[in-house]
Amino acid sequence: xxxxxxxxxxxxxxxxxxxxxxxxxxxxxxxxxxxxxxxxxxxxxxxxxxxxxxxxxxxxxxxxxxxxxxxxxxxxxxxxxxxxxxxxxxxxxxxxxxxxxxxxxxxxxxxxxxxxxxxxxxxxxxxxxxxxxxxxxxxxxxxxxxxxxxxxxxxxxxxxxxxxxxxxxxxxxxxxxxxxxxxxxxxxxxxxxxxxxxxxxxxxxxxxxxxxxxxxxxxxxxxxxxxxxxxxxxxxxxxxxxxxxxxxxxxxxxxxxxxxxxxxxxxxxxxxxxxxxxxxxxxxxxxxxxxxxxxxxxxxxxxxxxxxxxxxxxxxxxxxxxxxxxxxxxxxxxxxxxxxxxxxxxxxxxxxxxxxxxxxxxxxxxxxxxxxxxxxxxxxxxxxxxxxxxxxxxxxxxxxxxxxxxxxxxxxxxxxxxxxxxxxxxxxxxxxxxxxxxxxxxxxxxxxxxxxxxxxxxxxxxxxxxxxxxxxxxxxxxxxxxxxxxxxxxxxxxxxxxxxxxxxxxxxxxxxxxxxxxxxxxxxxxxxxxxxxxxxxxxxxxxxxxxxxxxxxxxxxxxxxxxxxxxxxxxxxxxxxxxxxxxxxxxxxxxxxxxxxxxxxxxxxxxxxxxxxxxxxxxxxxxxxxxxxxxxxxxxxxxxxxxxxxxxxxxxxxxxxxxxxxxxxxxxxxxxxxxxxxxxxxxxxxxxxxxxxxxxxxxxxxxxxxxxxxxxxxxxxxxxxxxxxxxxxxxxxxxxxxxxxxxxxxxxxxxxxxxxxxxxxxxxxxxxxxxxxxxxxxxxxxxxxxxxxxxxxxxxxxxxxxxxxxxxxxxxxxxxxxxxxxxxxxxxxxxxxxxxxxxxxxxxxxxxxxxxxxxxxxxxxxxxxxxxxxxxxxxxxxxxxxxxxxxxxxxxxxxxxxxxxxxxxxxxxxxxxxxxxxxxxxxxxxxxxxxxxxxxxxxxxxxxxxxxxxxxxxxxxxxxxxxxxxxxxxxxxxxxxxxxxxxxxxxxxxxxxxxxxxxxxxxxxxxxxxxxxxxxxxxxxxxxxxxxxxxxxxxxxxxxxxxxxxxxxxxxxxxxxxxxxxxxxxxxxxxxxxxxxxxxxxxxxxxxxxxxxxxxxxxxxxxxxxxxxxxxxxx
Amino acid sequence: xxxxxxxxxxxxxxxxxxxxxxxxxxxxxxxxxxxxxxxxxxxxxxxxxxxxxxxxxxxxxxxxxxxxxxxxxxxxxxxxxxxxxxxxxxxxxxxxxxxxxxxxxxxxxxxxxxxxxxxxxxxxxxxxxxxxxxxxxxxxxxxxxxxxxxxxxxxxxxxxxxxxxxxxxxxxxxxxxxxxxxxxxxxxxxxxxxxxxxxxxxxxxxxxxxxxxxxxxxxxxxxxxxxxxxxxxxxxxxxxxxxxxxxxxxxxxxxxxxxxxxxxxxxxxxxxxxxxxxxxxxxxxxxxxxxxxxxxxxxxxxxxxxxxxxxxxxxxxxxxxxxxxxxxxxxxxxxxxxxxxxxxxxxxxxxxxxxxxxxxxxxxxxxxxxxxxxxxxxxxxxxxxxxxxxxxxxxxxxxxxxxxxxxxxxxxxxxxxx
Lengths: 1115, 418
Fold this sequence. Notes:
Structural class of chain B: alpha+beta
Strand content of chain B: 35-45%
Shape of chain A: globular
Oligomer: heterodimer
Helix content of chain A: 55-70%
Distance between the termini of chain B: 47 Å
Radius of gyration of chain A: 39 Å
Largest interface: A-B, 136 and 124 residues
Shape of chain B: globular
Structural class of chain A: alpha+beta
Number of helices of chain A: 48
Distance between the termini of chain A: 117 Å
Order of helices and strands of chain B: EEHEEEHHHEEHHEEEEHEEEEEEEEEEEE
Low-confidence stretches of chain A: 19-53, 275-301, 666-888
Strand content of chain A: 5-15%
Number of strands of chain A: 16
Number of helices of chain B: 7
């Protein structure tokens, strides 16, 4: 019956199919619907296995028909099956027949099928081979390429020799496309038959020499898969790869960069030799990142960077602008692993940019930043706000950002970070809230100034409603208390009170441990807790039980009178516990503490064993040891070694022979685009000529400093060669030769001062002269003035911080011409700069953004300010407004003494007026006096540090007569920190570094409010935001007037009228961020008082507290 | 490098698989499903998952997981970037990247994947080259193909791959030559509860649609290029020229592409186009909460703020919201607790507001955090940073093209903490 049915069914289906075929022949478009319908039909009626079979039968028929459209339709359905993961292998014979089809689409689909199933049907797959072999000889390069592609993708071991032959032939093909395919085929063959390695390496070696950008990426990929240890193959191609890099397709770039990173680590010496020094002035190096400074540092060291090393760094730098995130990341890791420490910072911006990308990209980039930020805070600190968490971020993104923020925390920014953390703690995402608490704990241990604040905040969190938050807080408080166990019995008591309500076992265990550890500080409470625990012991988790036993033992030792029975009881319970851990522990503890005849010597030491002082735990970042993996790798991301991970070797102590990279023939570089192409050729020319120069120098055994100058020269001449603006710089040189000459003369004077250096220059004269014609080839012969500019500028660069000697000034011009020839080999980065200036005539402010920005931001900010004030109405009562101070004490500080200032002296005071220029600035009045006997000209403000410092400068004072003085006002944005503002005060001849260090009280502006508002605001700023201390005041200061005077003198705050006599309140806002600062002073008996400061800025609060304390203590 | 690719939909079905080397069993995805189960939200699935023999790297887009199977060390960003490129290509080809679209075009998808990767290493990812190899399906072409039996696969072989400008196909011809550029800026900001800006940045992109005959060489210059602090380019842009002159010089790809994305230097203060007055309160012990939200325009330089959409994830304790919008419509999903309010255009004379009450779970304690408010908006004809294109010139071709520049400002990740 069944059989009859199914045969009937298949008949019906068959009939339908014939109908379909005939419809197809009529080229009806209804076909697709029909086939679906038919499928549905068979699905409902027959078992799936049968469907398959019949379905495939049908396909077979179609494939064997002689109509291309039918075949194509069948193949499309077959591909559909493959895509769904269904087995279509039985169609193999029918499909493989079509491999030689004329229809391209059909052929491609057959290829797809072949590659998928050839491995399973090896014998049949061989049928197709001859077709490919024929195609390999096709005149069309694309057909050759795709034939090789499919041939090599068929994983049939028998054809290995055929593949080998095909690869070798293709590697010598004229078409770069075919050569690229052969590079891909190498990997495929290698994975199928590793025995072919030796032969394949030969092919790789050949392909590595290829000059096509198309091939470079693929062959390096093959190199990485087949023979990553054969770096000797790279030597000769190193410079070519560096130069081609920009034009290689993006995926190839990633592979090449990571290979070159490994290569460089084996071939060059460490640029971090003086690493310790760099680490110390990490910050400094960051801010003074101008090229001048850099040069100084490299000059100062005997370390010379290999020009090839420099070449790599320079050629990868533009790739930071790639749209491909993988490329940017790989350049970033290259700089991290290879660049001198102070140059790594250039990758920061690009990495931060990647954070705008997709979630997955963010994840990987944040992981890498987390690792970087542990070692180099300064790199990412200016971008701290980019790591603020948004509620829409995924949890793993949030925790990574938290990690980074914690790494970045330091004394200056901790209050901002803590305020941000306070928002996070309240997050609905409880896992994240818990992670935030951990982070607060880490900040607290790392930055001692905020430990107390954090601790207070965490204690407040103990009354949080959420259990995980409380539990996490307990655990973190435990760790914090351990680091500073003094004076915290209050907190321990508080935790003991909460103990009954906490159910998370880890938290309970932590409290019990704390009790035990500091039981002597809470002698009354600890036994009581133990009593409670004895009651609930059996119901507790293991970890709690263990800590209970511990607590019992410790109490027994310190307070046996009260706890002896309890301890015995608990030990008995533990003895019969289900967990062997607890039974073990109980047995051990009993032997240790209860004296009996068997216990022996150990007993005596029980106290020392159990109550030994324990080292505080170190709260460390989870990313601390991730840097053992190369950044950007899978291994780094997973923090375990992934299969195939290639270790990054340490720098060699002595650089291997660098001549191995020399190539005899000058290879013309493939042109990419007309503009770039034009400058390429000179580059390679120059590049190799530099080499010769260097060899000669080696021979002449020049001294260290000489070497450094020559290396810098060779590298920078490269630079200029590769820049495309070379042309324009030449032009500009020509046109403005006169001005160039005069300006270079003066520049030179400052640089070419040390006679020693001159001598050295002369010494190196000979070899440099030789190489001159090639190195200076594009500039010097065009006109005579070019080299002058070059020479002077290069020396300016190389010794820019050498002391200026006025005598040298006079004859510098004559030197200029003499030395022209000696030094014209030298590089001309300055020329580049000049060319930039020349070009920038179109847009001058491009290169000096700071001053032009100021007016604009001023406009925006003031409107913003008014908007903000409008907004705040909804939240804060309108009576609170910032007012001008009623009391303005003038405390003048010295900025520049007339002895150091060569006659110019400067004093400053804080005017306590709202700054006119920008509301976030503090107004400073500077009194400049000329106490010399000649007039001073062009007094202005020069360089400032940190570079980001926002100063509104006074207008340049053209002339200051002797004995005259002038008062100018300026605005400085201290960003609510007491970090000194350093800048240079310049006259026409001299510049003096000065610094203004604000007292914390000057960073405020007074604010008036009613008493009610004051207490309302104060109520919002409790916990972490409150700092208080009991102070002793000088007797003279007890009157309310005197108090006001002292407080107002120390800080720019406003008085809040008070109804109570023993209460004094002052209110202010910080200038930059407008955070409220509330000061209240409660007078107690005998000239003591309780001084409380409420503000979000906890660091400011503690400093203000200190200042006020001092002010009130002195009469 | 990339061994295999699995496409998994929201309900956890593998609906497409593709292998570039030997076949990896789809059971490897079980590790992925495990991780998916552990993650509470779809976004929380870690992008990199190690399994005993493989590594799974996945991206989630359009509610489809693209899971790549890796066998050995490879930069994870390499894979992630590639997967995103695959999604972009699908979107480019099919208009949308949904499960249905992929299933409908499975052959084209397969052909694309075949071309994009060879032995797991990217081969052709540039859309201009791909379109030369495989024509995107259009309704017209599908009809023509079924009638005439011709194919989607390009008849001529691609020449772009070999040219010096691999991103541009050769022999482009248009009767109307036009080049349009859209300058789109997004404001990312976090505003704290008192209305002051915690952090605000502007990110921008210039998307281009260039339909020009032949091999045009374009230069685009800005009035104020110094605004651009950090930039990334389409590979066609000549970096050296930008370094030297701050001019974008390029031979454009044919069709739509992203020319440039940039970040506006952080020294400039960011104008925040809207403000929000909010009052969201929950009282202890009562099962009611108050919700009061008013939007208003701020620094908009006189332009209208349009397509405003306010959304907020309300606390878990909120059962329902009974609100009254002064304009637009609002929806509240009681399951996800997502409140969204489609405001539309802001009228400065009559500020839109959303007021009412929220009912809380009886007996539940008051939520400790107020919800964050996310805002989306659009302002036409203005780039908030003030960036202006100066001029666009064309060299290399004789004809005169139509040129057009459009500016737009949007809110990116714009959050208000309450």
